[in-house]
Amino acid sequence: MMPLLEVSGITKRFGGLLAVSDVGFTVGEREILGLIGPNGAGKTTLFNLVNGVIKPDKGTVKFCGQDITSHPPNEVVHLGLARTHQIVKPLHGMSVLENVIVGACFGRDYLHLRPARKVAMEVLERVNLADHSDKAASSLTIAGKKRLEVARALAANPKLLLLDEVLAGLNPTEIEYMIGIVRGIRDSGISVFMIEHVMQAIMSLSDRLVVLSFGQKLAEGTPLEVARDPQVIEAYLGDPDIATKLKEKN
Amino acid sequence: MILRHPVLYIILAFAAIMVWLPLHGNNVSLREDLILVAIAVILASNLNLMIGYTGYVNFGHIVFYGLGGYIGLYLAAEKGWNLVLAALLAGVGVSLFALVLGLGILRLRGAYFALATIGILVAVQSFVANFDPWGRSTGLYVSFDAYEKLGGARHALWVTYFLVIAVMALSMILSLGIKMSKFGLGLFAIREDEGAAVVLGVNTTVYKAIIYSVSAFLPAVAGALMFYKNGMIDPSIAFEFMLSLEGIVMLMLGGKGTVIGAALGGGLYEKLRSYLLTSPKLSNFHLVIAGGLLLVVVLFAPGGLIGWLYKAVPRSRKVLE
Looking at the domain covering A1-73+192-250, what would its CATH class be? Predict the structure, then answer.
């Protein structure tokens, strides 16, 4: 079967820094692919290359069989590839509902205002923000803003969702809630490609993992395979027994 | 949707009052006062589309008004066109000019965009001051018999007044329509965070160019009418930088981003300005007041009068756009 997203040989250089170097991977239908790696490994840059925020120097990005390399982000969303931001970007002066309506209006279905409002309300229910729909987006807590990011991206009715550290900065209860949301997203038929530092969560959520270090792909495989990989342990995890420990915890 | 919006009826009532006031008792001097108020409302409302809706500060907005004046006067007075047709063509021409210009300069953000708009104003002014068909620095004049077509000069002044009021009402209705539309939602997203807007799917390049072009249309039409009424135009009065700045003061005073606020600020500021200009002690002092006013508004009431009203009476937010 054709993969939903196919990235090959993607490379980006910022001046003297090779931010992402010859990285390739695929995301299949109904799959959760995790992306992990130390700070500065190039994870967010890789996201930016995939959804067109920055243009790669080399390599291609294919989505649903179509070459979307260097397409601007707004076109990428119309094709069904939405994303959230690590540093949340709410539209501050607008209400929570309006934020999500923007997502629905300019997403894959390019809805009119009235149907967009309906979709937005449904999505807000899904991430448990419906009670806050009339509040200003700027008044939400960090957990609320992270959920708003997810809601906005979901409102675009994507086939693939890129989640950039949606668990960072959340407390354990909030993390658990968000994990439930992500599982729900996958169960509704949307593939997920997510960056995460909360190891326990990413290990249990992901079907497969890609490990990035200094812009290069260090390893790829199931969470257990990756966690046992000596290179990954040295570069990132730091504890040879982490795989068994995490497994026991789950 | 828009037909059911209370603000639409506020706009129509406002326009009706503006028509009735000078007509009642044939008060010519009041008419001359009110036409300036209407022009201020037109400029502030259309500037609001850029500053208030899209978040791009345009310091050279007056360039559209001046260019519209030139095109309109040239066609109506020199070429003998019908005034309404000349004004409409001025609007279309200036809008197209803005569209092409916008696709270029709207790549700039923040202070760089603002600087570019000042550059455009200065460049257009110098160009016109050296453009032969438009009379270089002496400008263009309307010969007295050109008014004959509108039934003589006295009648022509009334006709242009009603047309300007119509343009004023259209400016406000346009602002309201955009605010209630999906297009407007995209603009607000750009204002709040352009990076987020593009990732959410808003074609920011096209949206910005369109609104820049739209914000040029009615000021250009108004310029054509106003300078025709005045009977003359020259580069220094057509492209007056101060008027451009005062437009920003009006908008901040009333409340940027709101339909009523832009109009309120435009109207109030113009009344204040004409009072100061005509008072013997304070004449030429109005710019000092404008500067002080801007400072006070930005520091203490960034939402302007309407923002203040929203805070004082939260319910008003639902009614007044």
Answer: alpha beta
Query: Does A101 contact B at CB distance below 8 Å?
Result: yes
B185·A73 Cβ contact <8 A:
no
Distance CA B219, CA B244 (A): 12
Burial label for A33, CB within 10 Å (0-12, 13-18, 19+), is buried
Alpha-carbon gap: B201 to the closest alpha carbon of chain A (Å): 4
Residue of B nearest to A88 (CA): B196
Q: Where are the domains of chain A?
A: 1-73+192-250
3-state secondary structure A14-32: ECCEEEEEEEEEEECCCCE
Interface test with B, best of A71, A74, A162 (most B CBs within 10 A): A74
Say if residues A99 and A91 touch (Cβ distance below 8 Å): yes
Region of A17 on the Ramachandran plot (φ > 0 left; ψ -120 to 50 alpha; else beta): beta
| Dist CA A180 CA A19 (whole Å) | 32
pLDDT band per the 50, 70, 90 thresholds, residue B29: very high
Tell me the pTM: 0.92
Question: In A, which residues are within 8 Å of B186 by CB distance?
Answer: 102, 105-106
Q: pLDDT tier at A1 (50, 70, 90 boundaries)?
A: low
- Protein fold of B2-319: ABC transporter involved in vitamin B12 uptake, BtuC (1.10.3470)
| CB atoms B196 and A91 under 8 Å | yes
Using the 8-state DSSP alphabet, how is residue A2 labeled?
-
